[in-house]
Design a protein that fits this description.
By secondary structure, this protein is α+β, with helices and mostly antiparallel strands. The chain has two helices and ten strands; from the N terminus they run ααββββββββββ. The chain has a single domain, classed as minor pseudopilin epsh fold (3-Layer(bab) Sandwich), CATH 3.55.40. A hairpin with a 4-residue loop joins strand 9 and strand 10. The longest helix has 52 residues.
């Protein structure tokens, strides 16, 4: 009976200070274990989202070029955040964007520049912790130029072989390279890659010379890219 009364009084009195401290200690340990894992998972998801968004930009530009019979250009905020004429890559509100898709209009009037009134799309949001380039990868992705400078974030070149931050899609959907005077290369000159990283993982998005798009992830263990 005495034991029962003692237990009853303890329940009525609530938790002791020691019990509260123990509970908080357990919560602290769980937080220390779970939070880094959750944060790492969130960072990985942001990086994947960024890679998929770049791939979507290619898919969209190619599909719209074919549908509208227009030339479409995809610009990247990598080597420079401008088009060939020095126009900044910005959304409708004037905010810088990492990727901009431009409807450059019919080939007869297209000039490879962002002109007033032209339709632009910013399909890739600025993602916290995601940047251009690589942190772990030591080789170019499959289908990309083996000599690509990965730290540039993109490996597209103009007809003379100079690094540029853009690629165009012809009305037939084939990507082609061009220089700052809007001089275009031949069929097959538009292949290249885009590289994104969060400091722990690297992704590559490759565009084949005929318009195919692939996403690759760098595997540190094997030292190679996987699809």
């Amino acid at each position: 009976m005495l034991g029962g009364e003692t237990m009853l009084r303890r329940v009525e009195r609530g938790f002791t200070l020691i019990e509260v401290v123990v509970v908080f200690a357990i919560l602290a340990v769980l937080t220390a274990v779970v939070l880094p894992s959750f944060s790492g998972w969130m960072a990985a998801q942001r990086l994947k989202q960024g890679a998929r968004s770049v791939a979507d930009a290619f898919h969209f530009a190619r599909a719209e070029a074919i549908r509208t019979n227009h030339r479409y250009v995809v610009f990247f905020e990598t080597i420079t955040a401008e088009d060939p004429a020095g126009n900044a890559l910005e959304d409708a509100a004037g905010n810088p964007v990492p990727v901009l898709v431009l409807d450059d209009g019919p080939v007869a009037t297209a000039n490879c520049e962002i002109d007033a009134g032209e339709t632009t799309l910013t399909p890739v949001p600025i993602l916290d912790g995601v940047s251009w380039g690589v942190s772990k990868a030591t080789a170019a992705a499959p289908l990309d130029d083996p000599g690509a400078v990965l730290s540039n974030g993109t490996s597209f070149v103009d007809p003379a072989g100079n690094d540029v931050n853009w690629v165009a899609f012809r009305p037939d959907g084939v990507p082609v390279g061009f220089d700052d005077t809007c001089t275009f290369g031949q069929t097959g000159s538009g292949g290249g890659g885009v590289y994104v990283t969060d400091g722990r993982r690297d992704y590559a998005i490759t565009l084949s010379p005929l318009g195919g798009v692939r996403i690759h992830a760098w595997e540190e263990v094997s030292g190679s890219w996987t699809n």
